[in-house]
Structure formats: C-alpha cells, structure tokens
Amino acid sequence: MRGTFILFFLSVLCASAAVTESNLKSHVDVLALDHSFNPVKAAYWTGYPHHRRTPFAVSPNGKTAYIAYLDASETDVHVQEVNPTTFKATGTTVTISGGKEAGGLVAHDDGFALLTNEAMPSGTANSPPSDTPVAVLYRYTNGKKTWKTWLGGPGVHTSDGLSASPDMNGDLVYSYTAEKYGAYFVVTDYSGDASGHYGDSVQYVSKTGTLETISGASSSWGCSHNTGIALEVAPNPPFMSICAEDQGAIWLNSKTQGMTNDGVKISNENTTNGASGEPMGGMSGSYSALARFAKTSRYIFAWVSRGAVDITENTWMGDGYTHVTNRTNERNVAISLFTNKYDKVGAQASSVVGAEDGDAQVTWITSGSNDCSNAHAATFSNESALVTWEEISNPTCDYIAMGCRGTFAGSYFQQVSHDGSKMGSAIKSEEIYVAGDMVTISDGRLCWPYVSMTWDLSQAVGWGLTVANTTSMSFACMNLNA
Where are the alpha helices (DSSP H) in 336-432? Predict the structure, then answer.
C-alpha cells in the first residue's frame, strides 16, 4: 500500500509534467509460463480478435503479484506468482482444474482470490443443463485452497431464478474495510421468469467464503443482455459499478444494481442485436475500465462510443428510456468522472425525446476517422490517470453495434488530469498492448501484462486468422519517474 508521502510525491509529479515515450517501459517475454496460453478470444457475433484477458493483481504490501491465464486447451485456469519488480516467476503455479475462464483476481499478502466459471460436479441437483459453467470464487492461502464458493447455480437467489455463466465477462474486487469480495459478472438464467435470457449479477462474499445477500448491493439480475461491466472497490458495499445494456444506455448502477431510469445515465448508445458497440471491450473485456483515484472517493471511467444523435422514445421500455442513432461509424474514446460511487461529474446523458444531440455530456479523448477499441483507465494517484486504447486505420465497420476490422494503427496512452483534461499528447506504441488488468504498483508504476505478438485486427478469427499458443508473457509499465 502506498504511504501518504508517496502519494503526495506522485501527485506533484503528475501535476508538473505529462508522460512521454521514455516513461513507457516493456519487459518482453520476461515471464515463462508453465502451461501454454492462447492470447486471442473471438468476439461475440463478429468473431473479430480480442485479447484474451490475463487478470493481474499485486498484494497490499507490494511484495507479491499474481497473474491468471486460461490453459490453451480452454479448460483449467493457472495462477502464477510473480515478482512485481522483475515480473519473473516465483513460487509454484496453482491450477484450478475445470476453470473455463480467468475472470477476476485479487492478490493478498498470503495468497489470492480468483473469479472463474466451471461446470458443477456431476449429479448435482438442479445444476444447469449440459454442464454449462457457473461462476465460482476461490480463495488460496500460501498455495493451498482455503475455500470455494459458488456464485450461481442451485441454492443461490433461488426465488429469482437460478443462473449460470457460460462466458465469464466480469470482475472481482476486495474491500479491506468491509472485509468482503464483490463480484460482478454476466449470467444466463435456467429457471424462473428470465430463463434463457442474459443479464448480470452482483454477489458479495465474506473473507471466510460466506456468500452474503446485502440489501441494496446484491443483485440476481440487473442489466439485460449486459454488453459491458465495470466494477471498482469502495470502502463498503455497494461497490462502484457500471453496466452497458441492450436497450440504449450505459448506467452508473452502484445504487440500483440494474438499468432502471432512477440510476445515472452515463451515455446514450445505439443497441442492435443485443450489443452496443463493445463499449467496455466485449468478449474477454470488462476489466480496468473503471478506476478509483487512490484513496479518494473519486473515479474515472473509460469506454468507446460512436456518439449519439436523434433521441427517440424506447416504447417497449417506457418513459425515461430512449433509442439513439450513431453519430459516427467508427468508435472514439470517451471518459466520465465521478465524485463518488453514486454521483457523476456534470450532466447525465439526455433522455429528451426529439433532441438531436444525445452526447453533449461526453468528454472525448479522441476524434477522427480511425476506429478505437480496447479502452482502459487506471490511476497514478489522486491527481491523474492513464487512459489507453487501440486504433484501426481505414476501418470497415460492417455491424452497426459491434466491432470493426482494419489495419492495426497502434496502442495509445494518454495521461489525463483528475478534472478530465488531457495532459500532453498521447503516446503511441505498435508493440505494446493492454491484455490484462492495469495495476498501480507500490513504487508508483502502472503495470499490466500482454503477449508480444503481431496484432492483426484485419479479419475474424478462423477466417484466415490463426494465432499460435505461447508460453511467454510480457509486461509493460508507465512510470512517472522515468
């Protein structure tokens, strides 16, 4: 954990100068993996390549880090202990047998907690059909399993409908104040009124592994056909949460845990065929899009959007819900700031039917004809943050609410102030990507994992695009004190 002096020192640095190319450092192929890993996951509907998430976390004392990754066989999640200075392997790799995706990771001084999904044991009464995976939380202490808690399936919010998680799009955080884990993830119900439909769930678990239902914080079903999740810790539940749904908006839903219009509408988005432009990364996304400014109550959120014009009423949902048309064919990077987990800085997105402008509240980080994707945000300190994204030049955007394909034009890294203003110009790299959680290391660096490879965004996975497995992981860091 960073001390007061370090936070003050970093705040001064952030306020005085913007990062440059010299602040970005890479550690290529530094971590040897004990098992093979495939770094690409095909996107929903389009099959376009996405980085397969590799969750990354650092312990509070700053001495230990962990990285989680899915075996190339697509069954078994491996968690490797890592030195947070050298990024080389330490200790012994832990394998969670049967895990289908690495969905979220919390590092403790004595181990880790992992959010994953797996099929329930054969013969389990009222389990999902066809061995459909269910969300589950593991706690390991000193390399040994301490407990395992199912977050869906039989016995979990039974009266609202039983749920499974065939795709582990979600995240995991932990509050040392409340001594609770918060997990936010996509679900599909297999009983009850929502059977066969997709939504999302917020679940809380005590430090001893007890699943707790907390009024005003837990949720069995929140945002319909969730197309993006953002979760960040707060001292006490409910934790800070944001969702993108299939009816036309991105909501700050810390208070509502859903998409009700008494929440805070962050953005109007065109939604078609259950998608809204992959605002928070789509398949294998939903990580490091929302960050807290150090120990303050303030947050920053980053996403990609086509903008919004021509607001019309969403007659199926009723008053207060809207549809919009895309302003642009390509997506640009946007940010939003929050004074606390309930309140947005500035105006909400408009719900005025008939208005031509539905994105006046947006703070844009990019503009232009390139398509942007894979947006993330992380904070250096109380005073500044780093927003990152990827660009495609001459994009082909065949789908009105999905991703695009084209020539990879680089990853970009833009420092922004706590007031949302850009500090200097964006840094470009064609070799470094963001494929795992962006973490503030105790020495002030922002670091994240990625696979060193030729990043091809020109076509769908399997349609001429094949990606080799790897047994090496790279790391990159942005250091204010370079």
Answer: none
Residue of 432, 339, 417 whose CA lies nearest to 381: 417
What's the pLDDT at 393?
97
What residues have CB less than 8 Å from 24, skipping those under 6 apart?
A: 413, 427, 429, 432, 476, 477, 478
What contacts 55, CB < 8 A, 6 or more positions away? Answer: 67, 68, 102, 103, 104, 105, 114, 287, 436, 437
Name residue 240's beta-bridge partners: 232
141's tokens: 């202490």
Residues 89-122: tens digit of each pLDDT: 999 999 999 999 999 999 999 999 999 999 999 9
Residue 475 contacts residue 87 (beta carbons within 8 Å): yes
> Using CA atoms, how far apart are residues 237 and 162, in angstroms rounded to an integer?
23
Short-list 218, 277, 219, CA closest to 246: 277
Calpha distance 84→65 (Å, rounded): 6
The DSSP-derived string for 76-113 is -EEEEEE-TTT--B-S--EEETT---EEEEEEETTEEE
Sheet holding 249-252, edge to edge: 228-232, 240-244, 249-252, 264-268
- Burial of residue 125, with CB atoms counted within 10 A of its CB: 0-12 exposed, 13-18 middle, 19 or more buried: exposed
CB-based contact 66:108 (threshold 8 Å): no
The single-letter DSSP state of residue 16 is H
Q: Is the pLDDT of residue 24 over 50?
A: yes
Q: What DSSP string runs through 138-167?
A: EEEETTEEEEEEESSSTTSSGGG--EE-SS
Q: From CA 50, how far away is CA 284, in angstroms rounded?
A: 7
At residue 348 the predicted structure's pLDDT band, cuts being 50, 70 and 90, is: very high
In this predicted structure, what is the pLDDT of residue 6? 39
- Determine contact, residues 245/223, Cβ cutoff 8 Å: yes
Provide the pLDDT for residue 482: 66
- For residues 183 and 203, is the Cβ–Cβ distance under 8 A? yes
Residue 324, phi then psi, degrees to nearest 5: -140, 165
Cα separation of 152 and 150, whole Å?
A: 6
Beta carbons of 474 and 30 less than 8 angstroms apart: yes
Q: Which domains does the chain have, with CATH numbers?
A: 4-478 (2.130.10.10)
Across residues 343-347, what is the average pLDDT? 98
Nearest to 185 by CA among 207, 205, 210: 205
